[in-house]
Amino acid sequence: MKGIAKSAFTVLGVSVLLLAGCGSSQSTTSPATTPTSGNAAESTAQNTPGGANTSSSTAGSTTAESAQTVEISIQPDSKQGSDGKKHVAFSPADLKFTKGKPVQLVIKNYDTSTHTLTATDLNLNVIIQPAKSANDPVTTTATFTPDKAGTFSWLCTMPCDMNNGEWAMSQKGFMQGTITVNG
Hints:
Helix content is 10%, strand content 40%. The chain is mostly beta strands. The protein has a single domain, classed as Cupredoxins -  blue copper proteins (Immunoglobulin-like). The strands form 4 sheets. It has a 4-stranded mixed beta sheet with strand order 4-3-6-9, with no helix packed on it. Strand 1 and strand 2 form a beta hairpin.
């Protein structure tokens, strides 16, 4: 019964995100989760009473206490592009991990759009909730264990940077980057 309830909850959470869209300025108080398979990360972010924005995550039996913690921020209009305009960007965009060692991603989103950190080769898809405002970020935490060595591309799959023709979506160092896993 728990599996059915969790699956229904996951579908509901993802549906809410798809309806909200990356360019939406609305945030949801319903947690959104990514489905897990193998060593994929499951993340949950929600706005809690009293204005605190929190999240939680799991990936199998991995615990945050034993994980390498990597902090990432998403800032609107924070990085100048080759087109001469300022764009939303992940910082840092290039990440390094160790194969077999749990990683806890702590992603603070200052942008009022939903984002993802998706690396299909690592079975990683973290849905990152939007900030209420630039001064009220939401933190999404996800834990996963890379199970293979190499250099892998990641990207944000939610369309954003709408005011600039989605320029940042196709640029490494903005809404794309690399994950290097040392073996």
